[in-house]
Amino acid sequence: MEIKIEQLKKCYGSHVALDIDNYTIPEGKIVGLVGNNGAGKTTLFRLILDLLKADQGNVCIGDINVAESEKWKDYTGAYMDESFLIDYLTPEEYFYFVGKMCGLDKATVEERTAPYERFMNGEILGQKKLIRNLSAGNKQKVGIVAALLNHPQLLILDEPFNFLDPSSQSALKHLLRNYHEQTQATILVSSHNLNHTVDISSKIILLEHGKIARDIENVDGNAEMELETYFEIND
Amino acid sequence: MLFFDIRKLQKLDAKRSPMFEKNRFAKLLTYFMVAFWAAYLIFFGVVLSFAFMEGCPNMEPYHVLNQGLIIFLILDFLIRFLFPTPIQAIKPFMLLPVPKRKVMSVFLIQSGLSGFNFFWLFFFVPFGLITITRFYGLTGVLGYSIGIWLLMVFNSYWSMLIKVLVRQKFLYILLIIPVYGALTLIEFLPETGWLSTFTMNLGEGFILWNPAAFIGILIAILIMGYINYQIQLRLIYNELSRKDDLNISHISSYSFFDRYGNVGEYMRLELKMMFRNKTPKSQFWMLLVCVCMFVAFLSFDIYGEGSFMNDFMCLYCYIVFGIMTLSQVMAIEGNYINGLMVRRETIFNMLRAKYYLQCIFLVLPFVLCLIPVFLGKLPLLMSLGYLFFAMGPVFACMLQLAVYNDKTMPLNVGLMGKRQNNNKYQSMITIAAMFIPLVINRILTGIFDQETASIVMIVMGLAVFFTHRFWIYNIYQRFMKRRYQNMENFRNTR
To answer: Which of A51, B19, B94, B440 has the fewest Cβ atoms within 10 angstroms?
Structure first.
């Protein structure tokens, strides 16, 4: 599912948070989004998910303008932060809830969460704990698994490696790669961890002060060098 | 000095809270409520002073009042359960290079000097000015006021101690049984009346500036303050690592909602929201107690047949749960709004679920109201009239707030937490929900007899109920038009 961005601009007062002329995120790729704090990564994700009103321009997922129709929600999965989680539910209840919203019955939800048991590492399912009592890392895992439940053709994850221990970070990389191989979905991942981003992405977008500063095709590890150079220069 | 530094931080915190900063109406409402209660207490102070003069000609009015001081102290004790304890506020100071003992002392001194400890003086000062000045002049009133204030300070520490312990284990609430049990015994054992005699003498001691009375209460304050200090210091780490519901023994699945699709799922979610979060749960039980109390009033017919209060209490029983939940519609969902908004048409189904659940909840007050109905104190048609009117126009108006509520409601803070979020629409619609049905009922009973008026209200209620899909969809569409503005405000106030 490709994402078309046209003349997209978002300002907070006089501060321009995002300003992208025309850009298309191609279908079927894992795209990494990197940039320093305040570069506009989260703002871009919110605009793509219609959680924020653009001051100018629009975003289309496939042929659908996200601000005008809700159809894109049927094939999109996303997790950005804890405001996606209903923290007074247990993880199982939350998965069933999200499943129901996507038209899935309990058995299908269980079937679809089963492949992620390694990622959840026995700390999430069957614990009889509410989400609010899970660790930050486990909350993150619940959000990511929930985003995958409807087998989305477009998956958007904001800083998914945050709060995860090294083993879980590695497991998440495998999970995303496998999911991409199986479904050819478009996956959009933002991260401050350059290694992880380079490892999984076939394309990397570097944002700087709300604008796309670089658009890097990740071939033969060239992206890693380019990014390291860029961030060292800024240091 | 640490005391003033902490005070400065607290003032900034209150002033810059997004809930308060952007909500002038909430500020005004708070000032209005304080002024209202102050005026109410002054009024009672004046009325009671004359009532005691006339009713008890053989006793001085202040002696009569002082005999009942324990009632004020118990009331004050209960009200204070709504306020947070110092131990809950100490967390941000734990990593600062300040001894925690000092910080705790500051919080305890602040509690002692809290404005609320002076609030009862709105009652006692006018009462004293009318009754005490005759014999002891203004100095008598001054001594009495200081004494009462000191009693309230003591009471604040006592109440704080129980609150702190109850937060650790609810069973500690039982501590109040031996204390108030002993006080009851010494008062009501045959031919004793020791408690009322003691409080009468204590009050007179304050009026006469008797040093023993002041020293006694000061020592009591110091002891209670010290106990609080020691206990709260020991419990700091329990409080910091506190998790209320770490492991749940029983997870309710409410599986009967399975057959109702997405709407059923939202009804299930709504029930879990109500019973798994501190704020709605405590509100629910408190309101249930109020409903039971009103049903008891109706059953015993304490206001007399045909009284306006009977109408009010009957209506209140039916609308109160709706007011609790529907006045906060979307404000609750503000906590997880992003998760909802990335799913299709969820808000429409959620609004329907909320409405259906509130309609189902009406069974509870209806069953309770059958008691006065069977006792012949409440006409069945009147009860049904208010039930259907609540289900129809009242809930329909309350649900309009889904469009205008744009501040996230915290689900697990005390009722007097600083981030309360009533906006002007909430207050207006809530007040309208409580009085306009009564006005309509009065108009209808002015035109028809009571039975016909009730039937008209039932018909109006059913008409709104049967068209609910249309008006809920309209609310949903209006919400979607305002969604960006609301979502931004939800994010800012989360």
So the answer is: B94
